[in-house]
Amino acid sequence: MTLLVVANQSENRRRISSGQACFAPIAVKGRINGRTLLAMAGIICVLAGCVTEISGGTQRTSDPDATLDKRVALARQYIGVGDWENAKRNLELAQEIDADNAEVAEAFALVYQSTGEFEMAEQQFRAALKADPKLSRARNNYAAFLYSRGRYVEAEREFQRVTEDTLYSGRPMAFVNLGLCRIQLEDKPGAESAFNRALAMDRRNPVALLEMGFLLLEAGDTGEANRYHGAYRTVSPQQSPRGLLLGLLIAEAMGDQDALGSYELALRNLYPDSSEYNTWRERQSR
């Protein structure tokens, strides 16, 4: 499942999205793919009379807050390209200015998660939320981290809290993440409710459309499942392996041999090594 990440709405069923705005990391078994992170531009000092000096290739200002923001922005850029050492170097410099800054702690957490240092990542996520409990992006990233570690009950609780922040710009995706988490907890009515909330805010969300299709198909409503799959195909012409699998299952249920053959050929040719194709092959061998 996709725990998708706001920036990358993959439908891989074993993943779940996290992050928003400055970050859009995908938590994949505890690691973050740096290519999916949004790199931020450096912050330009615009304060009148701001004194600057060049230090180590970056500007240092007389305003500590501006310097801290600039270091965090640089760290985010390095995270975006997977340069963990330079990211940590800038975060350490930022931490010297404010040891309890939530943005710094969250960025450190993402670095540690990316390098497989999971205990340190969790410590930093907790530190970020302790410093600023209302930082919904950090809470969403923490929930994605918990999901990636298989801690679904805790992840659901954190995602629920994220969805309660009505001003959070990533709220639609937070509902998607909540739904994916509830599927793992076998709470299908709760998952459907979360996906419906997501679609009420963003009716073109491909993950919510796709997962609603699976839920409806499992409930025996093939016609509605097919409708959601059609809407999914409209917003995602290049279907994911999971999208093609849903098409196969719907075609099988409807007895549409032409569609079944087309989807099977596409899944075999485009994604021969996918878990979805293996699932389909195993299903046919029973």
Straight-line N-to-C gap: 24 Å
- Categorize the overall geometry: elongated
Topology-level CATH name of the largest domain: Serine Threonine Protein Phosphatase 5, Tetratricopeptide repeat
- Count of separate DSSP helical elements: 13
Largest sheet data: 3 strands, antiparallel
Q: Report Rg.
A: 21 Å
Give the tally of structural domains. Answer: 2
Structural class: mainly alpha
Q: What is the number of E strands?
A: 5
Could you name the ranges where pLDDT drops below 50 across 5 or more consecutive residues? 4-15, 19-59
Strand content bin? 5-15%
CATH architecture of the largest domain: Alpha Horseshoe
CATH top level of the largest domain is: Mainly Alpha
Widest sheet, order of strands? 1-2-3
Helix content: 55-70%
The CATH homologous superfamily of the largest domain: Tetratricopeptide repeat domain
* Average pLDDT rating: 82
What is the ordering of alpha helices and beta strands?
EEEEEHHHHHHHHHHHHH
What layout of secondary structure does this protein have?
Blueprint: E1 16-17, E2 26-28, E3 31-32, E4 52-55, E5 58-61, H1 64-80, H2 84-97, H3 102-114, H4 118-131, H5 136-148, H6 152-163, H7 171-184, H8 188-201, H9 206-218, H10 222-235, H11 241-254, H12 257-270, H13 275-285
Antiparallel strand pairs: 1-2, 2-3, 4-5
Helix pairs in contact: 1-2, 1-3, 2-3, 3-4, 4-5, 5-6, 6-7, 7-8, 8-9, 9-10, 9-11, 10-11, 11-12, 11-13
